Amino acid sequence: MSDANEQEQKRPLTLARTGGRLELRKSVEMGQVRQSFSHGRSKTVTVEVRKKRTIGPALEPGRAEASPVVVLDQVSTRPTTQESARPPVTFPRALTAEEKAGRVRAVHDARKADEEARRRAALAEADRRRQEEEQAAEEARRRAEEEARRKAEEEDRRRRAEEEARQRSEQEAQRRKDEESRREVAERAGKAAAAKVAALAAAGKVSVSLEEEEEGPATAPRRGARPEAKKPVVPARREETRRRTGKITVTRALVDDEGERMRSLASVRRARERERQRLHQGEQEQVKVVREVVVPETITVQELANRMAERGADVIKALMRMGVMATINQTIDADTAELVVSEFGHRLRRVSEADVEMGLRGEEDLPQTLEPRAPVVTVMGHVDHGKTSLLDALRETDVAAGEAGGITQHIGAYRVSLKSGKQITFIDTPGHQAFTAMRARGANVTDIVVLVVAADDGIMEQTVEAIRHAKAAQAPIIVAINKIDKADARPERVRQELLQHEIVVEQLGGEVLDVEVSALEKTNLDRLEEAILLQAELLDLVANPKRPAEGAVLEAKLERGRGAVATVLIQRGTLRVGDIFVAGSEWGRVRALVDDRGQNQQEAGPSTPIEVLGLNGTPLAGDDFVVAENESRARDIADFRQRRRRNAVAASGTRGTLEQMFSQIAAGVAKELPVVVKSDVQGSLEAIVGSLEKLSTDEVSVRVLHSAVGGINESDVILAKATAAVIIGFNVRANPQARDLARRDGVEIRYYSIIYDLIEDMRGALSGLLGNASIRDVFSITKVGKVAGCMVTEGAVRRGAKVRLLRDNVVVHEGTLKTLKRFKDEVREVNQGYECGMAFENYQDIQMGDIIECFEVEEVARSL
Question: For residue 750, which of 312, 401, 574, 658 sits 20 to 30 Å off, Cα-Cα?
Answer without folding.
Answer: 401
